[in-house]
Specification:
This protein is α+β, with helices and mostly antiparallel strands. It has two helices and four strands. The protein has a domain of about 50 residues. It is about 40% helix and about 40% strand. The longest helix is centred in the N-terminal third of the chain and has 14 residues.
């Protein structure tokens, strides 16, 4: 591995370490509380639209990207 390749790999790892990505499954009310807390703390970067779980299950699935620092 060349010096340039090592520097590039290190920079990519540092950028990836800045965020935590989660799939959250739960009732809409529970997810809303979690999203409000993440938003109030300034850590929420991205929130997907709700996806129903399907069938007679009333839970939702949402993708969250949170800042780690």
């Amino acid at each position: 591995m060349t010096t340039r390749e090592r520097a590039y790999a290190k920079a990519n790892n540092q950028r990836a370490a800045q965020f935590t990505e989660l799939w959250v499954i739960g009732r809409p009310e529970d997810i809303a509380v979690m999203v409000r807390a993440a938003s109030a703390s300034g850590r929420l970067v991205y929130l997907s639209s709700p996806s129903p779980m399907g069938g007679d299950d009333n839970r939702q699935r949402r993708y969250l990207r949170l800042r780690t620092h």
